[in-house]
Design goal:
The chain is mainly α. The protein is built from 23 helices and no strands.
Length: about 550
Amino acid sequence: MNFQGLIGVIVFIVIAYIFSQNRKAIDWKLVLWGVSMQFIIAGMILGTPLISLSCLFLYMFAIVAYNINIINQKKPLSGLIIFFSALIIMLGGAFIFSLLKDYSLIARNLIWYLFIAIGSIRLILKDKVKVKVKFPKYWANITGILVCISIFGNLIATNMTGADFFKEFGDGITNILSYAKDGGAFYFGGLYTGSVGWVFAIDVTVSVIFFTAIISVIDSLGFLNQTISSIARFINWNMLSLGIKPLSGAEILVSIGSIPLGGNNLLFVKSYLDELTDSEIVVMTAGVMATISASLFAAFISIGISATHLLAASAMSVPAVIALSKILVPETKKPLTQGEDITIIEGSDHGKPLTAVMTGISEGVQISLFMGGALIVFISGIAMINGMLGALDAYVDGNLLLSIFNGAKNSNGEFAGIIPGSVRTIFGTIFAPLAYAMGTPLEDIFKIGYLMGTKISVNEFVAFTQLGELIKDSNLQQKSIVIASFALCGYANPGTVAIVLGTVSPYVKNKKEVYARYGFISLFLGAGASWMTASVASLFSNLI
């Protein structure tokens, strides 16, 4: 294992510590939890078979233990009994599935579909049927245990790893997006290629509109809210069981919701936005900056970015944000929702899937138009600035200082000297040290540094598009591509600061200045969290 990326993890923690508002109040247990969670998630997806299976077992074991605790909450069991019960269930399940061998996949899928079917029926009946329908008590917890057993057992039976499971999950998203080809081919005819071709707007727009509509329907049926709430409760229990003071209910809910919903998740807790502590505000807003919404997965996947890496990057960014935020702005007050289980405020489309489709289509079109406009303006702007810098470089280094540098040019066609000839050179030079600390191979540090600078100063659309071009032209090593995929995954740019402030403004009266003060701090925290996840990912270089 190459430990170069460990430098990056340490660097970002040290930077947050240097600028911490209250070093004595830092909860280092919580910080350690955040960093450890990144390594566990990265290990599952990028590690060797042994590391991958071990990390997945650890994660599934924790989920099984949590569900056992919920089932027995009226008669609480000791931690030791829960531990051995979960261990026996996981190992026993793995043994049973190993006996099934080729039939293990069928068994896993049957359990998974049963879980989805029961959940769907329950959610639909809850909203549509006035008569109260009774479901078996703790059905979700029991089925959740079975799902964990089936996933891990199937991997053991088929000699697969956690990385294979998440790749299968990522491939599933890619396959769903492939169905957009029919609609795109019908509407655009020969202009549609199904992948990024000469008409970027058409190819990406089709995927974004289709996937956004799907996410809207899933959200309207309550699946996203149920999933987010369940994960939030699990994380709260996990922290308590490890002797860590948990986050507030609002923090956990918004942090988890950042993965599928981006900035919209702030409205989950709109009733509390004016009552949050400074530390809560930083965690929530930085969480928005460090992740991307599910609707944008489609756009980035369509330009050649791995779906698996995007999923991993978003999942890892949540604990990274928590770790860095709690160092920079540690909690010194008692949050209003400390220890509370907050109910998500349902959207206007809840229980109305057909209406949600229309909303999703509208949002998909808006996102596509915004992306197109942003790419046109910012790429043209960068070209204009490059032209100005190039002219200045030619005049100063290529003319006035000709006797000193002899008109020598670098690989980018710029004159050697004191004037940078392009935005790429400026950003590459500034961020190259960080890119190297993150684990980037030496020959690619200026390219990755340029992409990092583009992402934080312009936006992730432009940065990912330029990464796609580098991938297409085979100008990056595979390890550098993975590091860039993680480093660029997030909304950390000035435009997002404005969006976040605009989102919370109608709901806050007393804390508008506080949100404004932490706007750009959250931007750098979000970017730092993304870059920390890239550092962790680079440590598992054996599969990169």
